[in-house]
Every structure is written in structure tokens, then in C-alpha cells.
């Protein structure tokens, strides 16, 4: 066996970029599906005659499935090989997408979204592991930047594509669009990914799995049930929350005992990983949770079409696309503790605008604020994840990326659940209209009627509706969104606390040390 050279070139060669293309396609599908559905929620409400809290489970169920399956990816990658497992995940996601398009009820759609999530949950951690091995330690930041640009096609193109498909065809096509992408990605993965031999598998922590996954699912189910139940005192809320929390706490206490735990919490002994993970977790709760509601404001308060709502969200992705390559290059040269706080400040600046919204806030101001938030987001996500993984040893990368990714998904699930609960509870506080009820017998509120007329203007012609009542309802609805955004804004400010402890001096890379120590170290 010939010895590999220790140093890897600074530039990304064709072999690395070829592998990156496979990961990018999988990531685009996974991210696209989150953003596409965010503009489709009002359509699901009218299509399936369901409440906002109910249709929100098309988001929550998906992210719950992501968080549930991620712990399996590290063990399964060792057991079956990353290439084989990545292709299985692609196939599962693509099949789930096709089934979503066949759903006749909201329950079926939620179930098929969970199936999608089971495939999608493995795509990102496996992709990160594949890319970290392919790039080498001194090119991780640069590679993340290259990956980040096409991955932003999801956030930018998702709402626009979803809006166009819903307006011109039907909601079914927002899922059918994944079928050709998935087929291409499968063939590409078969041809481009290097073969890897499965290593002797560590024993799988089934007990940990039985505690963590149901614990997360039950806890978030309890939180998400709050809008319909109306109070924490309802057994449907506090019972699953209590059982879920007990299972998660039990998992944390138990996970330090097995030799090969489901999630290796011992990695938190690495200070850089711990600080980066906490920063990322708080940030995701705030930004992703409240960010999913931005399209809903345009759709429900401003009465825009789904395509227009998607176009209005584009400045955020464009801003991130501008700063992400710069942040990736800086992550290889400048400690993230010196750059991330500035990026967070941009996010906070843009976010504050949304705490002041009303039914007539200038679109120039809103789009400008989204652009500024995007600039900040591009300088936040990838540098923090790079900081978390850069100082791990080579044998820790798979477990480390799994740990960071599950924290990210849990943060997204918690954020989406909490923000939807706050918004729904605020909207439920609107004044009911005497003598007016929906088909299920629930009283119609002023905010509910105002939102309905914004989405279906023909209602104002079919029924005599007082314009002042509509205006009052829209004011209340906008105020409800603003209150929800205040919660997100405070959480963004809270992110500055852990971010203050991010490394401000250059850290040595253990990955590079490991390559120097092992002569024939081959990185795929």
C-alpha cells in the first residue's frame, strides 16, 4: 500500500466536487420540502377543512421524524456503509414524496410526511460525514461554503416553486416534483460515491433508542396539542409532555453508561463542540421557528397568492447566498468567535422589523429586513457547524455530526411547535362574531373571518360583511404575528450569550493530527 501524502490541496478538486454534487441533490430535496410546505399550510387548511394546529403537523411530523431517525445514522453508516445507507435514505424520501401526493385526508398526509422524514433525516448527517471525509480538515470551511450555495436553492426556490405549482396546478405537485430529482440523485449516487467497506459494527443501543425517540415525539406532541386543548391542564397536553420529558431525562442519565451509546454525549467534554452546539440550538429555535411563519403572514394577513408569498421570501435566501461563501472562507482562517456575533447582530436587526408589523407594513421594509436577516444567516449556520466538528478526532466525526444534526432538528421541531402554539393561542383570543359558526360548529372570530376574506375575496361579495370588522380582524391577526415574532426576537438576543464563548483564537485541528499519525490514512 502506498502512503498517502499528509497534506491535502487547498483547492477543491474534481473528485471532491463530484461527491459534493450527490450530497447537494439530497440536501436540496430535504430542505426544499420544508420550505415548500410552509407556503402550503393555508391550502391544506381549506383542502382538508382542518385547523392551523392540525395542518401544522405536516411540518411537526416531518421534523419529528428527522430527529427520530438521525441517531440511527451514525451506527447504520458503520454497519451498512455510507454509500448504501445514503441511497436507501434517498429512495425512502422519494417514495414518501410520491405517497404524499396521493393523500386524501390530513391524517394520511401527516403519516406520509413522517415517512418522508425517516428518509430525509439521514440525508444531512450522512452527507456531512461523506463530505468531511472527502475534503480533509483544512478544507472543511471552504467545502461547506460550496455546498451552502446550491443548498440555498431550497430556501429560495422552494416557496417560489411551491407557490407557482399550487397556483397553476395543485398542491399535489409540490410533492411530485421530488420524484425526478430523487431518481437522478439515486443514479448519481450509484455512480459517483466511492465504495466503502462496512466496518465491524458497534453494538446498537436499543434501550437508548426506546427512550430518546419516543421521548422527543411525546414531548413535542404534547406541546403541539396545546392550541386545540387550550390549556396545559388538559391531559392531552401535560401527560405526553411529562412522559416525554421523563424519557428524555432518563436517556441523558443513562447514555453515559453504555460503551457505545445511541448519542455520544461524552463528546460534550470538547468545549468547542459544546459551545457551538448550544449556540446553534438556541439560534435554530428562534430563527427556524419564527421563520416558518413569515410566509403565513403574507398569505393570511396580506392576502397574497402562494407564488407572491414565495417571491417575497426570496430576499432572505439571496442575502444568505451572498455571505455564505465569504463566511466559509473566513471559517478556515478567522476564529468563529470573531465573526458569528456580527452575523447574529444582522439577524437581530432584521428580525426586529417583524415585531412591529401591522396589516399595511411596507413591503420594501419587510423585504429589506429579510435580506439583512439572510446576510446574517449566511454568516452563522456553517461557521458554527464548522467550529463544532473541526477539533474532533477522525473517529469522532460521524458521531459528532450526528450529535450536531439531531440538536439542529430538535431545535427546529421545538421552535416550530412553540411558535405555532403562541400564534394559534393569540389568534384564538380574537372576539367571536355572534351567530356565526364554521361547518364544524366552532364560533368564527373576527380574525378568522378577516383571514378567510383575504384568502377568498369572493366572500365579501357573497355575504354582507362590515369592512370595519374585517379591518379590526386584520389588525388583531397582525398583532398576533407580531407577538409571536417578539418571542423569536428575544430568543435571537439570547443566542448572543453562548456565542460570546465561541473560540476567539485559532484552534488546532485533531483531524489533521490523526492523518499525520496514521500513515496510510485514506479519506474518501
From TrEMBL:
Topology with respect to the bilayer: Multi-pass membrane protein
Gene Ontology CC entries for this record: plasma membrane
Location in the cell: Cell membrane
Record-annotated Major facilitator superfamily (MFS) profile domain positions: 19-506
Signal peptide feature range: none
Keywords: Cell membrane, Membrane, Transmembrane, Transmembrane helix, Transport
GO molecular function: transmembrane transporter activity
Stretches that traverse the bilayer: 12-32, 52-73, 85-104, 110-131, 143-166, 172-192, 204-223, 235-254, 275-294, 306-327, 339-357, 363-382, 403-423, 483-502
Pfam family for this entry, one: MFS_1
Domain of life: Bacteria
Name the record gives this protein: Drug resistance transporter, EmrB/QacA subfamily
Naturally occurring in which organism (per UniProt): Micromonospora rhizosphaerae
Amino acid at each position: 500500500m502506498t502512503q498517502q501524502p499528509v497534506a491535502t490541496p487547498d483547492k477543491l478538486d474534481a473528485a471532491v466536487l463530484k461527491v459534493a454534487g450527490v450530497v447537494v441533490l439530497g440536501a436540496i430535496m430535504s430542505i426544499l420540502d420544508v420550505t415548500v410546505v410552509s407556503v402550503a399550510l393555508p391550502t391544506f387548511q381549506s383542502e382538508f377543512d382542518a385547523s392551523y394546529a392540525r395542518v401544522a403537523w405536516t411540518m411537526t411530523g416531518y421534523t419529528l421524524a428527522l430527529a427520530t431517525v438521525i441517531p440511527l445514522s451514525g451506527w447504520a453508516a458503520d454497519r451498512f456503509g455510507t454509500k448504501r445507507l445514503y441511497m436507501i435514505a434517498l429512495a425512502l424520501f422519494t417514495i414518501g414524496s410520491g405517497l404524499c401526493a396521493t393523500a386524501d385526508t390530513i391524517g394520511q398526509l401527516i403519516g406520509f410526511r413522517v415517512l418522508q422524514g425517516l428518509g430525509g433525516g439521514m440525508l444531512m448527517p450522512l452527507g456531512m460525514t461523506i463530505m468531511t471525509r472527502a475534503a480533509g480538515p483544512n478544507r472543511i470551511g471552504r467545502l461547506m461554503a460550496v455546498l451552502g450555495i446550491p443548498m440555498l436553492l431550497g430556501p429560495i426556490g422552494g416557496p417560489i416553486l411551491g407557490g407557482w405549482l399550487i397556483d397553476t396546478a395543485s398542491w399535489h405537485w409540490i410533492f411530485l416534483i421530488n420524484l425526478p430529482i430523487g431518481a437522478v440523485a439515486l443514479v448519481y449516487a450509484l455512480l459517483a460515491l466511492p465504495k466503502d467497506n462496512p466496518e465491524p459494527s458497534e453494538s446498537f443501543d436499543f434501550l437508548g433508542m426506546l427512550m430518546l425517540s419516543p421521548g422527543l415525539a411525546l414531548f413535542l406532541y404534547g406541546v403541539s396539542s396545546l392550541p386545540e386543548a387550550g390549556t396545559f391542564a388538559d391531559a392531552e397536553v401535560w401527560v405526553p409532555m411529562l412522559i416525554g420529558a421523563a424519557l428524555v431525562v432518563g436517556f441523558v442519565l443513562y447514555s453515559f453508561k453504555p460503551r457505545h451509546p445511541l448519542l455520544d454525549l461524552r463528546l460534550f467534554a470538547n468545549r468547542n463542540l459544546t459551545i457551538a452546539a448550544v449556540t446553534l440550538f438556541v439560534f435554530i429555535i428562534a430563527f427556524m421557528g419564527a421563520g416558518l411563519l413569515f410566509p403565513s403572514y403574507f398569505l393570511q394577513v396580506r392576502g397574497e397568492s402562494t407564488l407572491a408569498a414565495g417571491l417575497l421570501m426570496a430576499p432572505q435566501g439571496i442575502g444568505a447566498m451572498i455571505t455564505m461563501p465569504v463566511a466559509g472562507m473566513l471559517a478556515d482562517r478567522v476564529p468563529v468567535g470573531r465573526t458569528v456575533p456580527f452575523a447574529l447582530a444582522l439577524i437581530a436587526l432584521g428580525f426586529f422589523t417583524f415585531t412591529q408589523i401591522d396589516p399595511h407594513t411596507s413591503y420594501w421594509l419587510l423585504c429589506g429586513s429579510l435580506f439583512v436577516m439572510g446576510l446574517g444567516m449566511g454568516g452563522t449556520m456553517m461557521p458554527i457547524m464548522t467550529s463544532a466538528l473541526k477539533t474532533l478526532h477522525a473517529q469522532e466525526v460521524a458521531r459528532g455530526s450526528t450529535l450536531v444534526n439531531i440538536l439542529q432538528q430538535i431545535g427546529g421541531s421545538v421552535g416550530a411547535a412553540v411558535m405555532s402554539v403562541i400564534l394559534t393561542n393569540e389568534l384564538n383570543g380574537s372576539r367571536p362574531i355572534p351567530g356565526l359558526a364554521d361547518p364544524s360548529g366552532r364560533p368564527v372570530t373576527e380574525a378568522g373571518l378577516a383571514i378567510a376574506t383575504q384568502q377568498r375575496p369572493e366572500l365579501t361579495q357573497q355575504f354582507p360583511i362590515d369592512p370595519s370588522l374585517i379591518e379590526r380582524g386584520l389588525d388583531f391577526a397582525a398583532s398576533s404575528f407580531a407577538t409571536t415574532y417578539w418571542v423569536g426576537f428575544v430568543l435571537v438576543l439570547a443566542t448572543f450569550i453562548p456565542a460570546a464563548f465561541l473560540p476567539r483564537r485559532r484552534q488546532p485541528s485533531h483531524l489533521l493530527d490523526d492523518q499525520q499519525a496514521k500513515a496510510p490514512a485514506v479519506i474518501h
